[in-house]
Amino acid sequence: MPKKVNIKEILEKGGNFEGLDLTFENFRGLVIENANFNDATMAAADFAGATLINCTFDGAYMPEVNFAGAKLINCSFRDSFLQRANFYGATLENVDFEDAFLNVANFAEAKLKKVLFKNNPMKKSDFRYALVEDTVFENVDLKASSLEKANFRSAKFIRSDLRRVNTSHAAFGDIYDEKTLYYGKKPWGGEPYSEADSLYQAGSYDG
Question: What is the secondary structure of 74-129 as a DSSP string?
Fold first, then answer.
C-alpha cells in the first residue's frame, strides 16, 4: 500500500508534488501558491473551493479531478489529462490548457478570463451559463459540447470544430473567427467554412 502523502508538510516545504500519487487526495478550500504538481497522478483529487495561484499541473494525470468553485490564477495544465474534470462555478484567469485532454470537462457557470485552449480534444464539454472573456480556442474539437446561455466576450475561435455544438441563447460579442467549422449560420456572424478545408488535427476520441 503506497505511503500516505502528507499534504500539509509538503506545502510547508514549498509545495513540490511533482510525480506523486495524489489519487483521491483532499485539497478542498486550501490556498496554494507556487506549487508544482507536474506529472502527478491525481485522479479524482478534490480542489473544490481552493485558491491556486502560480501553480503548474503540466503532464499530470487527473481524470475526474474536482475544481468546483475553485479560483485558479496564473496556472498551467499543459499536456495534462483532464477527462471529466469538474470546473463548475470556478474562476479561471490566465490559465494555460495547451495540449491538455479535456473531453467531457465541465465549465458550467465558470468565469474564464484570458484562458488558452490550444490543441485540445474537448468533445461533449459543458460551458452552460459560463462567462468567457478574452479567451482563445485554437485547434480545439468542441463537437457535441453545450454553450447554452453562455456569454462569450472578445473570444477567439481559430481553426476549431464547433459542429453539433448547442449555442442556444448564448451571447457572442466581439468574436474573432478564423476557419472555424460550424453547422449552419454562425451565431457570431462569422463566415462559413468548408470541412474540406479544415486544419483541425488534435487527437480526439469520444469520452
Answer: EEE-TT-B-TT-B-TT-EEEEEE-TT-B-TT-B-TT-EEES-EEES-B-TT-B-TT
d(Cα 123, Cα 49) in Å, to the nearest integer?
26
Question: Which is it for strands 131-133 and 136-138: parallel, antiparallel or unpaired?
Answer: unpaired
In 10 A of CB 68, how many CB atoms? 19
pLDDT at 205 over 50: no
Cell of 162: 464547433
In terms of domains, do 65 and 30 share one? yes
Do 22 and 66 share a domain, yes or no?
Answer: yes
- Its pTM surpasses 0.90: yes
- Do 15 and 94 lie in one domain? The reply is yes
Total domain count, the chain = 2
